[in-house]
Design goal:
Elements lengths: L7 E6 L3 H12 L4 E5 L6 H6 L1 H18 L2 H4 L10 H26 L2 E4 L2 E5 L2 E4 L2 E10 L3 E3 L14 E2 L1 H4 L8 E5 L3 H12 L3 E6 L10 H13 L3 E4 L1 E9 L2 E8 L6 E5 L1 E4 L3 E3 L32 E3 L10 H15 L13 E3 L4 E6 L2 H6 L4 E7 L4 H6 L5 E7 L5 E8 L2 H13 L4 H5 L10 H10 L7
Parallel strand pairs: 1-2, 1-6, 2-3, 6-17, 8-15, 9-10, 9-15, 10-11
Antiparallel strand pairs: 4-5, 5-6, 7-16, 12-13, 13-14, 18-19, 19-22, 20-21, 21-22
Helix pairs in contact: 1-5, 1-9, 3-5, 3-7
Bound molecules: flavin-adenine dinucleotide and 1,4-dihydronicotinamide adenine dinucleotide.
Flavin-adenine dinucleotide (FAD) binds next to helix 1, strand 2, helix 2, helix 3 and helix 9.
């Protein structure tokens, strides 16, 4: 029931996957809902400059790579592809436009009011949007995140020499030599895009391994595969400075522990060392809120901040910075505000890196099992022994299932395989239902499919895969 002492029942700040989903769900539940967004289009980082444009370019560039020397040649198909980069970029922009426009349509359909402008708190129930005061009974902070800057390496997306992920999605030429600072998800996805289109790519990563946070075996295998694909890796190194001179960027690089300074010349540099929460200009203090040491808005299990009518979801709160995590939190927070019970199982949030092969995981890593003193059984199955992968000639990778040694309950699944991003969904459903490895092993899987590798890895937990 609307509370007429406020302009809205719920006001959501930010229209990314967290905010727009929360807004639609709140409206579906009968709440008078507004969503403030300062960007010219809805959909946040994900739809405008994140998940969607990066996946569009990953798809387009993979087609080019396959034709230029990938699987086309394996299958006796001769092609000499030429690249119209402008057309590829236009197709990406078209996909983004269709999806952001789709959210605008959904807002209208569900009667969510889009307040255009930047929101700043005046008090716990009032925000200022472009000089207008707007009040709401409940307010959700869904302001997302932006690129972490690297001191000494100034990003200038307009200049197109030192760029962040947004700039790397908009280059108007294929770099001669792209140096990627940060061997995380963005570095490897966007590094792959430009490598496939013809760039020499060097990844400078502070740690001794790529992709922190993923299972150790997967990180090692990924490193080997990216090297085989032609990416140069400088692990255990950090960039300390960058100088642009015309079309050349000169980077100074040191060992992670310090010392051993060297220089590296690049035509383009991508800074991808992580993202940080967006709270600047929000005037959180006026609402009685502070941020934690990592700049995040702290919340409780129900997504409520320290101020009872203010809630937080998505990249701005603790947890992995992933679109589907933000979306699920958006649904749950709206349900909690409406007096229902909104829950997200943070133990089952999949993580996918959309390179070729794809890399995916859910649940705990083998290293986390050790840190927690858990006794586990592990089953591994190589894609080399999977009949469909073999038939398709795409045998890189493996599936790894981590199960509790006593109960056999599946605690984690890690996959490197061409279809890992789709295969992980089965592991998520199984884990959500508390499956044992035996449950997966005795589930009939269609033959021949890549998914059979998950079944076999589950069988391997008890030492009994058939095809190995
Ligand atoms: P955001 O999407 O960041 O949205 C927040 C919105 O709030 C923004 O539009 C911002 O303009 C607005 N805003 C902020 N402050 C204010 C204010 N004061 N007033 C008004 N509006 C405000 N995740 C995946 O799961 N899969 C992927 O494949 C993937 N690919 C990615 C690729 C790239 C290159 C990048 C950069 C990110 C990618 N991510 C991916 C991460 C994903 O984009 C984020 O996790 C997700 O967008 C977070 O959603 P959010 O709603 O919390 O915030
Ligand atoms: P990241 O945290 O994944 O990786 C950053 C990397 O940079 C780390 O490996 C880190 O060790 C390294 N690093 C940090 N400082 C460095 C320095 N000075 N020199 C060299 N290396 C340094 O962050 P990234 O790639 O920027 O992505 C940000 C977030 O966006 C991701 O964590 C993820 O949450 C999200 N994202 C998700 C995607 C997906 O789900 N497919 C795709 C892209 C982004």
């Amino acid at each position: 029931m609307a509370d007429h002492s406020y302009d809205y029942d719920v006001l959501i700040i930010g229209a990314g996957p967290g905010g727009y989903v929360a807004a639609i769900r709140a409206a579906q539940l009968g709440l008078k809902t507004a969503c403030v967004e300062s960007r010219a289009t809805l959909g946040g980082t994900c739809l405008n400059v994140g998940c969607i444009p990066s996946k569009a370019l990953l798809h387009g560039s993979e087609l080019f790579d396959e034709a230029a020397g990938g699987h086309f040649a394996t299958w006796g198909i001769t092609a000499t592809p030429t690249l119209d980069l402008g057309k590829m970029m236009a197709e990406k922009t078209k996909a983004v436009g269709e999806l952001t426009g789709g959210i605008e349509f959904l807002f209208k359909k569900n009667k969510v009011t889009w307040l255009k402008g930047h929101a700043a708190f005046e008090d716990a129930h009032t925000v200022n949007v472009g000089g207008e005061k707007v009040t709401a009974k409940d307010i959700v902070i869904a302001t997302g995140s932006s690129v972490t800057p690297l001191p000494g390496v100034t990003v200038d997306n307009a200049g197109k020499r030192i760029v962040d992920s947004t700039g790397a999605l908009e280059l108007d030429e294929v770099p001669e030599h792209l140096v990627v600072i940060g061997g995380g998800v963005i570095g490897l996805e966007l590094g792959s895009v430009w490598r496939r289109l013809g760039a020499k790519v060097t990844v400078v990563e502070f740690l001794d391994q790529l992709l922190p946070g993923l299972d150790g075996d997967v990180r090692k295998e990924a490193g080997k595969i990216f090297k085989k694909q032609g990416m140069n890796m400088m692990l255990g190194h950090k960039v300390t400075g960058a100088k642009v001179d015309g079309k050349t960027v000169t980077l100074t690089i040191e060992k992670a522990a310090g010392g051993d300074e060297q220089t590296l010349e690049a035509s383009h540099v991508l800074v991808a060392i992580g993202r940080r929460p967006n709270t600047e200009g929000l005037a959180l203090d006026k609402a009685g809120l502070t941020v934690n040491a990592r700049g995040q808005v702290e919340i409780d299990h129900d997504f409520r901040t320290a101020v009872p009518n203010i809630w937080g979801i998505g990249d701005v709160v603790p947890g992995p910075m992933l679109a589907h995590k933000a979306e699920d939190e958006g649904i749950a927070v709206a349900e909690n505000i409406a007096g229902l019970t909104g829950i997200v199982n943070h133990d089952v949030i999949p993580n996918v890196v959309y390179t070729a092969p794809e890399i995916a995981g859910v649940g705990i890593t083998e290293e986390q099992a050790k840190e927690r003193g858990l006794s586990v059984n592990i089953g591994k199955f190589p894609m080399m022994a999977n009949s469909r992968a073999k038939a398709n000639r795409d045998t890189d990778g493996f599936v790894k299932v981590i199960a509790d040694a006593e109960t056999d309950r599946v605690l984690g699944v890690w996959i490197i395989a061409s279809l890992a991003g789709s295969m992980i969904a089965e592991a998520c459903v199984a884990m959500e239902f508390g499956a044992t490895s035996e449950d997966i092993a005795y589930t009939c899987h269609a033959h021949p499919t890549h998914a059979e590798a998950l079944k076999e890895a589950a069988m391997a937990v008890t030492g009994k895969p058939i095809h190995m």
